[in-house]
Write the structure tokens for this entry.
Amino acid sequence: MYKRIAGTKDILPDEVVLWQQIEQTIRQVFSLYNYKEIRPPVIEDAALFNRSLGESAEIVQKQMFLIHNKEDTYALRPEGTASVVRSYIENNLDKTNGFLKLYYVGPMFRFERPQKGRLRQFHHIGCEVIGSLDPDLDVEVISLANTLLTRFGISGYKIKINSLGCQKDKAKFNTNLQSALKDKINALCEDCQVRYQKNPLRILDCKNEECQKIVRGLDIYETYLCPECKDHFAKVREGLDVLKVNYEVVPYLVRGLDYYTGTVFEISHPDLGAQDALGAGGRYNNLVKELGGPDLGAIGFAFGVERLLLCMQNAAVKTQKSNLVYIISLGQTARKETIKLLDLLRKNDIIADIDYENKSLKAAMRKANDLGAKFVLIVGDDELKKGVVMLKDMQKGEQKEVNFSDLLKELKC
Ligand code: AMP
């Protein structure tokens, strides 16, 4: 028997209902905020991610699913931002649309050690807004993330924000961090000793308790921001206060990818355990230019759908009522007529199905019940002779004979 690959998941029909509800909600919310959907391919030139995320990023170093094809190397996308920016530039969207608010939903791939909330194929709900440096946009994007969680019925999460500042500030942050950690290098984990040389900011992201204790005790935070970046961050906080979005400023919050600048944020939830990030995002004001486009500010975020679902298990999930009309035919003559009836119902936009397993009446009724059918139509020789069907209302538990000619009217009301 074949088995699915470790870290992947079959989303079975019962669960798909929830996924569809999530997708419906995000489409409603994103359109309320005037975002348009974009669907880039799941496979890209690997170099796009090396360049955007940074050669030393964990994803690039260890987690990309690569496909070698002659002299090209492709990657299954590990995240959406780089693809969206590539698409924005390649399709000249800056010339036709300029400022653009985009969202996407789809699978992402990272070769990670699978555990609760950590998969090798998972799904992002994400957005990217390209073409503005306005701090009010940061406020919109963070409050949009907040609105989505509220609409999903999720509570108890924490929004953590910080500012990495512009490229110059980030460089200063790195230098300050390096000098503050100079005489503590040996106490850092092995990975962080490498990070110390290559990209010190990543040390702040380390999950090792000892490393966390060391960096949290440092006195270097917010000292690296230039006046413009300080002002930008103050405006973001003010805007969030006006909208009454709860957040916490976490000065050692950084993101593990090179492209982030300015405002960064992460949303965590205690129900998630070790992998507690529900979503994350931030500004990437240099990426569009770095990938060959114009010099435009941009910001985005992504939620992991599987982690949203873990948090929604406790939240109230809307159960969808079924409008199914289930047909049970008794005998071969009736079957012919009911196939025509089935076709008629569907042509009239009525969700309908029939017992293809030729069960006994009792078993077929049980099946209709299991399917959550709203109505059952029973057609046998007697009904055919009289030109009627037996209509059973499954919610009310009542049944009556209905003339064929009145059936559509009866089912639609
Ligand atoms: P990131 O691009 O790493 O900031 O990820 C954004 C969100 O995607 C995270 O907060 C998680 O909810 C989700 N996510 C990231 N990696 C995984 C993974 N391997 N498995 C499941 N969800 C993930």
About this structure: Residues 79, 110, 112, 117-119, 122, 124, 277-280, 302-304, 306-307 surround adenosine monophosphate (CB under 6 Å). The chain has a mean pLDDT of 94.
